[in-house]
Amino acid sequence: MSERQVVGESVRRVDGIKLVTGAPAFTDDIHIPGMLYGKILASPHAHARIVRIDVSKARALPGVHAVLTHRDVPRVPHTTAGQAWPEPSPYDTYLLDNKVRFVGDRVAAVAAESRAIAERALRLIEVEYDVLPAVLEIEEAMAPGAPVIHDEPDSTKIYDRNRNIAGHLLREIGNVDEGFREAGLIVEREFRTHRQQHAMLEPHVTICWLDTDNRLVIRSSTQVPYHCRRQVAMILQMPVGRVHVIKPRIGGGFGGKQEMLLEDICGALALAARRPVKIEYTREEEFYMARSRHPQILRLKMGVKRDGTVIASHMRVLATTGAYGSHSTTVQGNTGSKVLPLYRADHLRFECDVVYTNTPVAGAFRGYGCPQGFFAQETLVDEIAEQLGIDPVQFHHANMIRLGDIDRLSAQLGEGKEGLPRVIRSCGLPECVDKAAAAADWSKKRKAKPAKGRLRRGIGMACTMQGSGIAGLDWASAFLKMNEDGSFYLQVGASDVGAGADTVLSQIAAETLGVTLDKIVITSGDTDTTPFDVGAYASSTTIISGGAVKKAAEKVRVQVLEVASKLLGQPPENLDCGGNQVFTKCECRQTIGMADIALHALYKEKFQIMDGASHFNTDSPPPFCATFAEVEVDVETGQVKVLHLATAVDPGTAINPKLAEGQVEGAVTQGMGFALTEELMLDNAGRPLNANFLDYKIFSAKDMPKLTTILVQTDEPLGPYGAKSISEVPINGPAPAIANAIYDAVGLRIRKLPIRPEDLLRALREKEMEVAQ
Amino acid sequence: MKSLELHLTVNGEEKCWAIAPGDLLLDVLRREGYYGVKRGCETGECGACTVLLNGKAVNSCMMFAGHAEGAQVMTIEGLGNGTKLHPLQEAFLDHGAVQCGFCTPGMILGAKALLDRHPDAGENLVRETMAGHLCRCTGYRKAVEAVLAVSTPPRKVRKQTAGGKR
Amino acid sequence: MFDQVEQYHRAASVAEALRLLQTGKGRARVVAGCTDFALQSDDSVRILIDITRAGLSYLRSKDGWLSIGATTTMADLEESSAVRNLAGGILARAAASCGSVQIRNVATIGGNMAHGSPAADLAPPLVALDAVMVVVSPAGRQRIGVGDYLAKTKAPNALLAEIRIPDGPSGKRCGWSFQKLGRTAVDISLVSAAAGLEVDARGKVKWARIALGAVAPMAMRADETEKLITGRILDRGLLDEAGLAVRREIGPISDQRASADYRREMSGVLVRRALQECASQSGWPL
Q: How far apart are CA A515 and CA A565, in angstroms?
């Protein structure tokens, strides 16, 4: 491989200067004359019918320009999930409905001249509710006699509405019953995970207005501008071509903005008021009226031979999607498809029911079902390894998926339909394990520790994987055109959520075209001026959008070389690009600058050097990750402090190593929050108890352990310059690694998240009493 | 109703604004075009709204604008000038400490206030300052690195975080 | 949202503040740092009286008392050498534990005490130190012991002007400690404890003060536990007894942050740790 100039370099972000100077780059950083403030009236009840709703007083309040109830808007069943059409999630949501299904559900919406007037208008709306019994617990939702949450006849794609089952999956390769018969040791455990919220620093915000051609413009903090456009058009019953979605800089998404969340209601208000309207969630609304991670109950049974070889694995998941089915089957499908195949067992079985409950709606969240699944699997194998007297590192080496393997479970669990089998064409996992183990000082720290003193230390590990784009489904396109100074405009539908997509895609374009990074000017995420992209999710941007960028750049490079060929009098095959020039490969070394080529094409030959390309993959090469956690447990308070988190990731090629490291460090921080401190709590009426940063605790700079991040680069044939992905996989490791470290420290198995000090303390006391007896 | 006149200096420029008595400083600053001051939580937890008031970092989301009468306020827009970035801004870019950028203005201002008073700030003090700036993207490591690189003498992130609870 | 507020005054003196409070007829509020106030949504407030420029930011040592003006900030307390040298610096440590740098730059000792949260960070040290609160009203200046101040309903036309701390006992056989338990490094107290004691040459406890926060409607002294350990030799067994005893004196609640049981148990743990630190400082390490 010849030396690369731009790809592989830790260049500064191309959008960095505007971010460090606070330039008005985010959705709300704009003044639109006449803009109104929109606000949503949220349901105070977990489950109720709206018997009567009177908005006359609200409408009459001076400064109010629009008030909408279910009577004022079309009733179009849809899903809010930002997924490719036809979305696999149930079409069970309505712009405004005459039934509310969770505390925070939409009742009505207003647009007024100020935030204060809008809030006052909400208080003037009179609603008479017929309060219905609510079901909040997962296990109760399917029980006979449970209230039916989606009894409306017009919703579709619900698996069994009368039992509140939004989705159901059953997939098997091999035969697990046979597999378990061969097993020398079988361990079965139940695990529980909870509601984690994205808590991105910029809450959801959308501004809608009608442009001078009366098209609906939607300026929104969204990961999925194209899905948004399609869905809003459908819901508001407008042609797609009459909707224009603009994605400015986004202040974090993590999957929470892989959703059409406010755009429909904001658009409806803008149409009703004939004025621009902004809806911006408060932090409180963001916690329970946006999206969160699917809580799960997982039963995992694994069978191994006495020598530790994994033979069979049976996972049953009971999850809740909250009141609406956004991402319901797909997240849980991932819990099986990305998790079970980590081990080379012939027999894998995955079963899942996803139920509705009258609770905040779950959706996409970094990891997308994998954090839950790996928590279960990696703590279970730790237990198995211990019972067999095998070092977990050795256990993993012996059983982990390898280069050349074929994962057949993925073939059965695509996004809502048959997927494609996954061939492992690049795999740095063994090296990840060894390097992370060394960085964490695994061997030394695993030796027996004296069990005294109030601070006990332990070390644990976990291996995880993810995907890079959804095979056969995620796709992207890119367009490039050349300017007379030798620069190129790169137009991509891809949605930079802050992870650095704009930079990475520019690097790929620059590398392919043989120009320096400053010669690429990128525009992204505007449905009028950039071509289609499914959006930023499923770790697809580098590999899929990057693939499209590389293809488009290769096509444009051909055009550039053709023009250069004429100017240099050399056939194109004798030419190459580099350093903003085209040069001859032979020793005669003729050169011509990109700017000269552009000027010639534009003004002499009279054509625009430009081209576009679309790209998708028929496979989803997994990035791999090994996580080692060292913890200190205070046995008097039950508090767990993470001392060191070492993460080694195989992302394929790291297009920008520093950005890649940043992704790891951010992901593991969310992973630690998932394990230890974050939980959206509800009372027994379904009302949120901690919808604020005071009581929903995310890690601050003072909570951070020492972080070691190791990139183990491999070369993935399906990715541009060998890249796979990195932004999700590291979030999967901390919870199981920490749980395993706690076992090493105090001998307690953690099977429930988050790991609350009280619960740990109680378990320690119980263990002490057992030991005493 | 805007019945109060607020006089203050913002980024070195004298301002006279009509405000309502109950206006919060965050709302006034954004209304007047200082979009670098962000609205993240409105409860003083996240620090995205941080500005410097007479050199001290404060959460503008929980400060009445009237409190800033006669004060010197600095927002991110006042740091560096049009052509030259402040060393902290350069450091944040060089160390990859910026991802989505929403917490960045607040963090940089907080770090500036710290280094103005303690040019030799070590990791503990830097983390103490950064604790008032929640970030969901970076895990803080590169931001701490960036600030330590600007402190005198420049330092690296230490092996073990010694911060922790009081 | 404070769109109902009609007036914002920066009082230039305490007298002016009191006058505005009086004419406000119950719809006026005194504010300083606003870090608690801004989180409330009290629609009835029409007049805000900002007292941060009313001459109440000071720290004065005189005649055996440390007088702290009510609008002295947490940051001021944290950095003041007078406060750091007082009683092992427990008030400075409590101030330093309160929120973030931005909060501490504006939050005031007066606001923290007047707001009256059961978890107010400064209350346990002030209770342990027998602080005296100076409240001014049209009727004049009144001195109230901190315990009484916290227990009584606040008069609407009065404002807290000063907090006075007696110099109190000191010496090399005195030890002081402040402990706080939170869920993460920056947190409201789940439990907090401020303690001080003095031992004689043989380790016998001459006096002890133990105050707890967030485990009762207001910060409180653990009188029974203090009596229990006074006059006895300070050893690990005594610490264990104290830890158990304090659990019986408190009245914690369960909320979304912690259960009453956990708070109860942690009170014992924190008091034990506080007394252990006091012991170390008093030259009697255990």
A: 18
With beta carbons less than 8 A apart as the criterion, state whether A218 and A327 touch: no
Subunit contact B166:C97, Cβ cutoff 8 A: yes
* Nearest CB neighbour to C2, from listed B22, B56, B114: B22
B156 belongs to a structural domain:
no
- Residue C186 in contact with partner chain A when CB distance is under 8 A: yes
Residue B158 lies in a domain: no
- Å from B116 to nearest chain A CA? 19
Regarding whether B60 and B96 lie in a shared domain, the answer is no
Cα distance between residue A478 and residue A548, in whole Å: 6
Residues of B with CB under 8 A from a CB of C: 3-4, 20-24, 43-44, 47, 50, 53, 56-59, 61-64, 66-67, 69, 110, 113-114, 128-129, 131-132, 163-166
On whether both B91 and B58 belong to a single domain, the answer is no
- With contact defined as 3+ CB pairs under 8 Å, the chains touching A are B, C
Chain A CB contacts of B130 under 8 Å are 700-702
What are the backbone dihedrals phi and psi of residue C187, each rounded to the nearest 5 degrees, phi first? -160, 160
Which H or E run contains A71?
Answer: none
In-domain check, residue B9: yes
**Contact call for C50 and B114, based on CB within 8 A:** no
Cis peptide leading into C166, omega within 30 of 0? no
C83 CB-near residues (< 8 Å, 6+ apart): C59, C66, C68, C77, C89, C91, C92, C95
- Boundary of a domain, candidates B43, B78, B113: B78
Report the predicted TM-score, pTM, of the whole model to 2 decimal places: 0.97
Residue B163 in domain: no
Same domain for B71 and B107? no
Q: What order do you get walking across the sheet with A640-650 strand by strand?
A: A455-465, A624-634, A640-650, A706-711
Domain limits at B9? 4-78
* B109 and B58, same domain (yes or no): no
Residue where a domain terminates, one of B23, B56, B78: B78
Task: Tell me, yes or no, whether B11 and B72 share the same domain.
Answer: yes
The answer to whether A446 faces chain B, any CB pair under 8 Å, is no
Inter-chain touch B131–C101, beta carbons under 8 Å: yes
Total count of domains within chain B: 2
SS3 A553: helix
Please report the ipTM that was assigned to this predicted complex. 0.96
Same domain, residue pair B74 and B102:
no
Contact status, residue A15 vs residue A74, Cβ threshold 8 Å: no
* pLDDT tens digit at each of 286 positions of chain C: 799 999 999 999 999 999 999 999 889 999 999 999 999 877 899 999 999 999 999 999 999 999 999 999 999 999 999 999 999 999 999 999 999 999 999 999 999 999 999 999 999 999 999 999 999 999 999 999 999 999 998 888 999 999 999 997 888 899 999 999 999 999 999 999 999 999 999 999 999 999 999 999 999 999 999 999 999 999 999 999 999 999 999 999 999 999 999 999 999 999 999 999 999 999 988 8
Instruction: Tell me whether C262 touches chain A (CB under 8 Å).
Output: yes
B63 vs C99, C106, C186: nearest CB:
C106
CATH of the domain at B134: 1.10.150.120
Could you tell me which chains touch chain B, where touching means 3 or more CB pairs under 8 A? A, C
Contact C180 B166 (CB under 8 A): yes
